[in-house]
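Write out this protein's structure.
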Amino acid sequence: MKYVKFGNAGIQVSRLCLGAMEFPDNCEEKVAQALLDEAIDAGINFIDTADAYGRGTSEEFLGRALTPEKRDKLIIATKFWVKMYRDNINGGGCSRYHIIRAVEASLRRLKMDYIDLIQLHHPDPLTPVEETLSTLDNLVKQGKVRYIGVCNHYAWQMAHMLGVSALHNWEPLVSIQCRYSLLDRVVENETIPFAKRFNIATMTYGPLAGGVLTGKYKRGEPFPPDSRVGRTKQMQERMTDEVWDILDEVRALADKYGVAMNKIALAWLVSKPYVTCPILGGKKPEHFNTLYDVCEFELAPEDLQHLDKITASMKYGPFANQSIFQGSELALNRW
């Protein structure tokens, strides 16, 4: 396993991050425990979860699965924003009221004294960014949080946050988590240039485009009804002739190198120096254990250029998983 500095932070993380979204709700606890231990043995020291994953069950699983010895060697990232208390109108978002409750609840579920990286799962248009950032700064000062990051934010929203943090000498955000794959390159237009300019660590999810880049789907054949594409009309609509042509090219490269398609897709991501760490997700051993050596697997420069060329149009489309275009509420009593 290779390791890399985490943006402006002083820590180093493994080049691959283990995503715990499916643990343990979509795989048996013993399987999830084995997958976690195997990832740690492979050198992964970075684990990403969220309070929303299983409505707390993912965090609870990590609280049970990680011994104090293991936890001390790991960087644990979690998130808040999702409404966790359905009968409470203030039970979500990025207000001081919710952030403090969310962090305390995550600490209880994780059975930990501090969170290495706390992330805003989405922007909150109702809460002034000053309220959010001052609250997070206090949590850092209290030792309950080490670093601050965001997910699914536009570049200008991050720029606003960095500017406000600098103005008040508060802890700045150090990372962005965004969707990025051969079939979704929209973040290259603004998010990636922004992250490069300000040295923001870039965690990328969906490296296999929801399983599409694994080769499990075949042109002209019906989608398995129990598959993600089979269950999701929006994903079915994205399976255009252009996407099928790209999959044919990726499959040809996989045959050339004698590997599975998922390794080609992940190797392309790892080749990008501005990607700090792709997040591996899944619920079966084969979703993980065949990819741990991807950092030692290199595609020829001409093949990387070919992948860039055939997927160039994937840079133009809607920003994935983010419908909140506006900024945070203006704090009229702050200057």
